[in-house]
């Protein structure tokens, strides 16, 4: 079997950032998959499931209600390795183009107060495994350490 594209990225050199993971064409329409890397793989602790789950609920809610991006948002969800998220958007896009969106997304998570959307047994299959305080911590950390000072080295995968 061929190695899939995400396994060809040098995770020993990868730092937190916003990266184009892949670009595809589906029935003639462009789809861009973004790697929203929040922790340094194999170097920093990974995020726990409760905060990832809360960030997923909040992130999906934010994106699917965003005036400009709601109709282009195909998927927002965690990576299995728990070091970040994948975001699939309709269109042939760059990391730099979506950096303002990602900054707004994580500011929304950092500043969110109240009940997490979809945090009920009727709406979610694991509604008890959510941590808003830790989701806010990781959002604040990603903003301060990465997004507010994003540069080209953190917008393009290391070679």
Strand content: 15-25%
Strand order of the largest sheet: 1-2-4-3
Q: Summarize the helix and strand pattern as letters.
A: EEHEEHH
Average pLDDT, all residues:
96
* Biggest sheet layout: 4 strands, antiparallel
Number of strands: 4
Total count of helical runs of at least 4 residues:
3
- Rg estimate, integer Å: 15 Å
Quickly give the structural class: alpha+beta
Distance between the termini: 23 Å
Apparent shape: globular
Q: Any low-confidence stretches, pLDDT <50, length ≥5?
A: none
Percent of residues in helices: 25-40%
Keywords:
four-stranded antiparallel beta sheet, globular, 3 helices, 30% helix, 159 residues
Would you write up a description of this structure?
With 159 residues, the protein is of the alpha+beta class. It is 30% helix and 20% strand. The chain is built from three helices and four strands; from the N terminus they run E-E-H-E-E-H-H. It has helices at 49-65, 95-111, 132-145; strands spanning 17-26, 29-37, 73-78, 84-90. It has a four-stranded antiparallel beta sheet with strand order 1-2-4-3. It is globular and about 40 Å long. The mean pLDDT is 96.
């Amino acid at each position: 079997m061929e190695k899939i594209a995400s396994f060809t990225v040098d995770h020993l050199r990868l730092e937190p950032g916003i990266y184009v993971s892949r670009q595809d064409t589906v029935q003639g329409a462009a789809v861009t998959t973004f790697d929203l890397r929040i922790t340094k793989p194999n170097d920093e602790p990974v995020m726990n499931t409760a905060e990832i789950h809360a960030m997923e609920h909040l992130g999906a809610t934010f994106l699917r209600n965003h005036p400009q991006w709601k109709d282009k948002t195909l998927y927002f969800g965690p990576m299995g390795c728990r070091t970040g998220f994948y975001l699939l958007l309709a269109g042939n896009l760059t990391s730099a183009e979506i950096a303002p969106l990602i900054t707004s997304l994580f500011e929304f998570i950092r500043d969110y107060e109240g009940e997490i959307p979809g945090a009920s047994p009727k709406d979610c299959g694991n509604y008890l495994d959510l941590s808003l305080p830790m989701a806010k911590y990781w959002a604040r950390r990603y903003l301060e350490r990465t997004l507010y000072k994003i540069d080209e080295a953190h917008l393009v995968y290391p070679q």
